[in-house]
Amino acid sequence: MFALQLTTAGVATGSVYALIAIGIVLIYKCSGVVNFAQGAYVMLGAYLTYGLVHVGLPAYAALGCAMVLMAGLGVATERFVLRPMLKAPAVAIMMVTLGVLILVKAVCLSVWGPDQIAFPRLFPDGAVEVAGIFITYNYLAAFVLAICLSVAFLAFYQLTPLGLMQRATADNTRAALAIGIHTSNQTSLAWSMSAALAGIGGALLASLNGLSLGLADIGLVAFPVIVLGGLTSLSGALAAGLLLGVLQAFADGLLTPVVEDFLRAHTKIYSAGALQQVVPYALLVIVLLVRPEGIFGERGTERL
Amino acid sequence: MPLQESALQEAVPRESAFQEAALRVRGLSIRFGGVLAVDQMSLDVGAREIVGLIGPNGAGKTTFINCISGAYRPQSGEATWNGRPLLGRAPHQIIRDGVVRTFQNVASIHDLSVLDVVKLGAAMRPDATAWQRLSTMLSPERGRDAELIEGVLRPLRLADVANKPMQSLSYGLRKAVDLARALAAHPRILLLDEPVAGLTAQEGAVMSEVIRDVRDRHGCAVVMVEHKMDVVNATCERIVVMASGARIFEGSPAEVQSDAGVRRVYLGEP
Question: Around Cβ B103, how many Cβ atoms within 10 Å?
C-alpha cells in the first residue's frame, strides 16, 4: 500500500518532469542546442504565475498569462541570444544558454528574494481515496494537466501540418528551407512552445513543493530524463519522466529510511539528506555507460 | 564567330507561341565573387508550356532556377510570375504563388515517411487568408491521406511505399517523391531540376510521360533543366540553350538538334 502511495506521488512529479523534458528534446531536435536555460524557464514560469496572482489575477488566468509570457521569452531567447550565435561552436552555444540560466536566476533573486515563498493555491485542498490510497487534488491535477499537455503536444507534433513542418525542420533544416518551409519561424515556434511547457511545469511543481530559486535545478533533473529517453525521442522523454518520478519517490520513501537507519547505527551521521536527488544522476551515469543512445533513442542518430 | 552571332540574335527571347508569357524573366544576372554565373538571362514561359533548359555543365541552369525560386538573390534583372515579382522574396513566399521546384540532389529528409513529405507539399498550397492558413495548419487531416495517396502517389507509382521512411528509398524513388511533393503543392509552374538525372533509361522514359501527363492534368507550366537529350526532345515543346550563364539559342527540339552553334558548345564539336 505504501508502495502504491509512493507510485502515485512519483507519477505526478514524473509527469511534470516529462513536460519539461519534452521542451528540451524539442529544442534539441529543432536547433541542435542542449538548452541549459530550461531550468530558468521552469523557475520563471512559477515566479511569474505567483507575481500575477500577487497583483490580483485569478490563479488560472495568471497561469495562462504566465504561459503566454514564457512563450514570448522563448522566442526572445531564440531571436536575440541564439540566432546571433548560429555559426558559433556547440560548446559556446551551450555556455550561452547557461548564461541565460544564471541571468534569469539573478533577476528572480533580486525581484522575489532568496526565501521560499508559499505558492498560491491553484487547486482545491483535499484528497480522493482510490483503493485505499489517498491522492491529493494537487497531485491529481498536476498529473492530469501535465499528461494532457504532453499528449496534446505530441498529437500536435505528429498529426497537424504545422507539427509536420516542425518535424521536417528538425530532421533537416536546409532541406526544409529548400522545399518552402520558413525554418527560422519554426525554430522560434519550437522555443516558444518549449518555454511555455517548462513554465507550466514550473507552476505545477511549485504548487506541489513550494516556490523557491531551487526550482531552476529541475532543469538539471530533466537531463537524466532525456538521456534516459534518448535525446531525440519525445515519447521517450514522456516515459522516462514518469519512470524517474517514480524512482525518486521510492528513493525518498524507501531507500532514505533504510540508509538513515544504517548510518545512525554505525556512524554519527544523523540524516541522509535528499537521497532522491542522487537517483537521477546515478541513473544518468549508468545509462550513459550501458546504453548511451538511451532506452528509446535511436542508435547513431548523428549522421555524417 | 557564329556563336557570338547567335548569342546576339537570341539575347531577346522569341515571342512565345502562347498569348501571354506567364513567367517573364528579363536581364537576370548573378555573380559569385569573380564568377558571373548567370549573365543577362531572359526567358518567357507560357501558362501551359513545357520548356527545356539545356546547356553544358556550369552553364548556370540550376543557378537560374535557384534565382527564380528564391534560393539565391540575383544582383540585377527582374522576374515576374503572372505579373507578381519573384526576385527578393523567400522560397516559402514564392511557393505560395504556385511557383514550385524540385531538386537535382533531392532534399534529404530522412525520418519522415513518403506520405509525410507529400503532406508537406500539400501544406504549401496557396491559401486565401492568413487565418485560413493557420486553421489548416492546426487541423489534423487524416482524411486527406487517401486523397493524396490516390491523387498524387498512385499516378507516380509510389502508393506502395507511402508509409516507408524516406531514407529507405532508392535514389530514383526519392526523386519521384520530390516530384510528388511538388505536385501536392498545386503548382502553376513547375521548375524541375534534372528530373531524370541518375535514373535508368526506362525510368527516364516513364518520367517524361509523367511530366507531360502532369501538365495535362494540372494545367501548369513546366521548366525543365535536363541533360538527357532524348528525354528533353520527347518532353519539351521549346528548348532554351544556355552556355556560360547566357542564353545562346532557342527553338523547337528539331531546330536545336540541327544548330551548329549549339552542337559546338554542347557537344564539344570543333
Answer: 25
